[in-house]
Amino acid sequence: MFVNNDVMNATTKEERHVIQLNDPEHPVILSTEGLHVYYGKKEALFEGDLQFASNQITALIGPSGSGKSTYLRSLNRMNDRIATVTGKIMYRGVDINQPDIDVYEMRRRVGMVFQRPNPFAKSIYDNIAFALRLRGVTDRHQLDEIVETSLKQAALWDQVKDDLNKSALALSGGQAQRLCIARAIAIKPDILLLDEPASALDPVSTGQLEDTLLSLKAHYTIIIVTHNMQQAARISEYTAFFNQGRVLEYDTTSHIFTNPSVQVTSDYVSGNFG
Ligand SMILES: Nc1ncnc2c1ncn2[C@@H]1O[C@H](COP(=O)(O)OP(=O)(O)OP(=O)(O)O)[C@@H](O)[C@H]1O
């Protein structure tokens, strides 16, 4: 992993430590610059400059209310109606936080999977085909192919291939969450945002979901909010630690969990607060 330890906007190294990425194998695909998020007059996020490496997993960790979901939801403009988001969100060189951006098209490239699995009350097949049809894909063979590929990538195909016409509401929680991932990847995004996707799952389903994410990073850039420290350590290359509306530390996951530069990070990852 190639990183240089430049510190951006640091007051002292012990207070804030944010690396800049420089890995030619995994160039930066998304970054935020000067991002501020306000709910009414309340500023929920005020220091959130981060870069994300392509085809890598980045974990966002931090105590409850520190701004992780606020940050994640801003990345594909899910906060547009509830918050004011200022600053730049650069995706492949384009600021997608500009008013003239086609948000619908942008969300095709920057997809989101939510905390609770939320399959539609439709068949397993139609959960995936729905968004494709909306986007003009009507050829049955093409739909069949994309449904199969998406379910395979989400590691669900073997379990559901004979039940594609059954209701998605009959799936287990873990299966339903992987269906939601299949649904998100069917429209071929670049980036997958996941907000605590395993919080409603049992340990076995959580393990399966983590394996799925590890295999998906070959095709997608993954940014995941998690409260589970072990999960962040198991699956991510980079970790950002949020505290009180700021990113206090951003570094390789191994650095964050073995030798963090900021005392508050150290206290958090060792379970002293949060
Ligand atoms: N829709 C909203 N309206 C007003 N305030 C909000 C809203 N959503 C979040 N907040 C506030 O913004 C701050 C950051 O919340 P956020 O949900 O981003 O934190 P978080 O780190 O994701 O927390 P958690 O881990 O508990 O999900 C909190 O003070 C929260 O109360």
Automatic annotation (TrEMBL):
<keyword id="KW-0813">Transport</keyword>
<dbReference type="InterPro" id="IPR003439">
    <property type="entry name" value="ABC_transporter-like_ATP-bd"/>
</dbReference>
<dbReference type="Pfam" id="PF00005">
    <property type="entry name" value="ABC_tran"/>
</dbReference>
<dbReference type="GO" id="GO:0005524">
    <property type="term" value="F:ATP binding"/>
</dbReference>
<keyword id="KW-1003">Cell membrane</keyword>
<dbReference type="GO" id="GO:0005315">
    <property type="term" value="F:phosphate transmembrane transporter activity"/>
</dbReference>
<dbReference type="InterPro" id="IPR005670">
    <property type="entry name" value="PstB-like"/>
</dbReference>
<keyword id="KW-1278">Translocase</keyword>
<dbReference type="GO" id="GO:0016020">
    <property type="term" value="C:membrane"/>
</dbReference>
<dbReference type="GO" id="GO:0035435">
    <property type="term" value="P:phosphate ion transmembrane transport"/>
</dbReference>
<dbReference type="GO" id="GO:0016887">
    <property type="term" value="F:ATP hydrolysis activity"/>
</dbReference>
<dbReference type="InterPro" id="IPR003593">
    <property type="entry name" value="AAA+_ATPase"/>
</dbReference>
<keyword id="KW-0547">Nucleotide-binding</keyword>
<dbReference type="InterPro" id="IPR017871">
    <property type="entry name" value="ABC_transporter-like_CS"/>
</dbReference>
<dbReference type="InterPro" id="IPR027417">
    <property type="entry name" value="P-loop_NTPase"/>
</dbReference>
<keyword id="KW-0592">Phosphate transport</keyword>
<keyword id="KW-0067">ATP-binding</keyword>
<keyword id="KW-0472">Membrane</keyword>
<protein>
    <submittedName>
        <fullName>Phosphate ABC transporter ATP-binding protein</fullName>
    </submittedName>
</protein>
<feature type="domain" description="ABC transporter">
    <location>
        <begin position="30"/>
        <end position="269"/>
    </location>
</feature>
